[in-house]
Amino acid sequence: xxxxxxxxxxxxxxxxxxxxxxxxxxxxxxxxxxxxxxxxxxxxxxxxxxxxxxxxxxxxxxxxxxxxxxxxxxxxxxxxxxxxxxxxxxxxxxxxxxxxxxxxxxxxxxxxxxxxxxxxxxxxxxxxxxxxxxxxxxxxxxxxxxxxxxxxxxxxxxxxxxxxxxxxxxxxxxxxxxxxxxxxxxxxxxxxxxxxxxxxxxxxxxxxxxxxxxxxxxxxxxxxxxxxxxxxxxxxxxxxxxxxxxxxxxxxxxxxxxxxxxxxxxxxxxxxxxxxxxxxxxxxxxxxxxxxxxxxxxxxxxxxxxxxxxxxxxxxxxxxxxxxxxxxxxxxxx
Amino acid sequence: xxxxxxxxxxxxxxxxxxxxxxxxxxxxxxxxxxxxxxxxxxxxxxxxxxxxxxxxxxxxxxxxxxxxxxxxxxxxxxxxxxxxxxxxxxxxxxxxxxxxxxxxxxxxxxxxxxxxxxxxxxxxxxxxxxxxxxxxxxxxxxxxxxxxxxxxxxxxxxxxxxxxxxxxxxxxxxxxxxxxxxxxxxxxxxxxxxxxxxxxxxxxxxxxxxxxxxxxxxxxxxxxxxxxxxxxxxxxxxxxxxxxxxxxxxxxxxxxxxxxxxxxxxxxxxxxxxxxxxxxxxxxxxxxxxxxxxxxxxxxxxxxxxxxxxxxxxxxxxxxxxxxxxxxxxxxxxxxxxxxxxxxxxxxxxxxxxxxxxxxxxxx
Lengths: 334, 364
Fold this sequence. Notes:
The structure holds 2 protein chains of 2 kinds.
Chain A: H1 14-27, H2 31-34, E1 47-55, E2 61-62, E3 65-66, H3 67-80, E4 84-96, H4 101-118, E5 121-130, E6 138-148, E7 164-167, H5 173-179, H6 199-208, E8 212-216, H7 222-234, E9 237-241, H8 249-258, E10 272-275, H9 277-289, E11 297-303, E12 310-313, E13 319-322
Parallel strand pairs in A: 4-5, 9-12
Antiparallel strand pairs in A: 1-6, 2-3, 4-6, 7-10, 7-11, 8-10, 9-11, 12-13
Chain B: H1 2-6, H2 10-23, E1 28-34, H3 35-43, H4 46-49, E2 54-61, H5 63-66, H6 69-80, E3 84-88, H7 102-107, E4 111-114, H8 118-127, E5 132-137, H9 144-157, E6 162-166, H10 171-181, E7 188-191, H11 193-199, H12 205-211, E8 214-217, H13 222-237, E9 243-245, H14 257-266, E10 267-274, E11 278-287, H15 296-299, H16 315-320, H17 351-357
Parallel strand pairs in B: 1-2, 1-7, 3-4, 3-5, 5-6, 7-8, 8-9
Antiparallel strand pairs in B: 10-11
């Protein structure tokens, strides 16, 4: 018989204790967590980056990852996008009663693997179990802190006219991979989510150039939304070339079928960098040498004109505005 | 899916544009019927590439947009009934009716589900035998056959909890009404691609014959659209209006007979109310007598209350081609995709949405 999570697993009693002792501690083994005090305690010097995020992906397992890997990678990437070296993460599990224990174990295991790859430690956490129907299988809330090296100043406010816009690889892989598993929409594809920790890629980029002005991971809302955020924050115009934006054939095909624009489809292992033009070529080389940046491309540039707007040069050579994503992506009907 | 790239090739597009520029000597105004055309035209920036002699106008070919508020109200009232699951295409969710929207009804507890195909709606009916599943049937001749197929399938399976609110619309009658009104002067029409895949290109012959207006059926890729515009320009310059097909990989003069048969088995033409155009004869589809038990309007007792039109919204005028979104005082101010006042800002095929998203107001 398959074992399921019971309400008692979140009660703070014996079952809850067992879950921590047998489920979480061995997976995330590290001295800070093992002390099992109410807070993890550590020393810190220098500039600190602090972020939080919640993960509610449906389904919790998808091609190329699961909610555990996603939670760790997403948090690590948020830290990396301000140029921070991620150090410590918290993971809080909100579990719907009845979740298979084996599913929880799988999620914990992939969270651990992602943390190992990123070189971060999960030093504190929490578990709550709610009645069936009060949550959808499993939600994960995270927080993360990281250290910013001296001289690094990366922010959405820093883009300057003349800068180049670099993208680390193909867009839309995550969104389409997850969508392909949705109930009522399942279509078969070999596509996998791009879910990955990008902190090492960022570290290599920072080693190569201190002229990286902005970094952003285009998650929900896709590339279009990230570029719009950067254009608005920095009060600059951004012009990109549709021909230069890498899109996998499978993603392109699925988007055509569903009426989506890949520019708006979510990514979980990609970054956009805005950097001084002088360093762009060198950065591109560094990015392409890293596994997670192998398809990197220079996709456009920052301009003084049309501040706050993103303009796309279409395949036909015309130009048009690319706005932020509005609402959810909806399918076409005709 | 390599075949799509072929229809976006920049070199072919440049050739077509050069030919259009060479031919288009006299001023001409063309209407693209489909919202899908409007979106592609904006998405690829086609208007910028055309010579100044050519004026492109958006038409009424957006099923969500032309759905009258009174019909939207019916759909929302049905969704609000206890033990009813309303199944709908996603675009309908946010469209504001007189008092509410399906999205708001859903937030208030109505069971509204987005489906991608009528077969998904049937599946919901199978899985929920104690509830009634009402499919909100909007769309043109493109979607009507699939809905007819779902009805026949439900009949075969004896699924007695499946219903359809038939708000389907037929496209040739609305073009006729538009031309008869004389409100817009047109030289050519980019005829619908998906609709014509079903009904064929021959139903458009009356436009060329009786009104002397050029016609070209187009697909939805830039090369399709440019080719159809070139065909229209040639017809205008040669003063020889006819129906050309720029979408031969999908459209035949006679259409898809099997689909037409399905549609004809289940539905018959009836008067239908179009936003901005009122009641047009034989422009909708209702259930034939032997399929009436699937008709949600007959099966459920609903009172949607009085219908109100959104104040200041000119969607009706935009759908008739007499105004553009830029003429609307609400556009991009009070009416945005986040807070739509009219349906043309909601639907992914709506003119206002295309103008807004692709920055028609913006000169590069």
